[in-house]
Specification:
By secondary structure, the protein is an all-alpha fold. The protein has three helices and no strands.
């Protein structure tokens, strides 16, 4: 089992582009990847950070 299998098993993977090539890359060695989270919390945090203090 590699890291991609573990992420999929735990439900962290929603969509993969070029899955076969990604498995090959994981088999060859270390892989850097982006982990994104829903935009709703980001917008909320950003709005609070830019709004004036009371």
């Amino acid at each position: 089992m590699n890291a991609l299998d573990l992420l999929k098993e735990r439900g962290f993977v929603k969509q993969i582009t070029f899955e076969d090539e990604l498995y090959e890359a994981f088999d060859k060695g270390m892989v850097s990847f982006y982990v994104g989270f829903g935009s709703w919390p980001w917008r909320t945090c950003r709005r609070r950070a830019t709004s004036p203090s009371r």
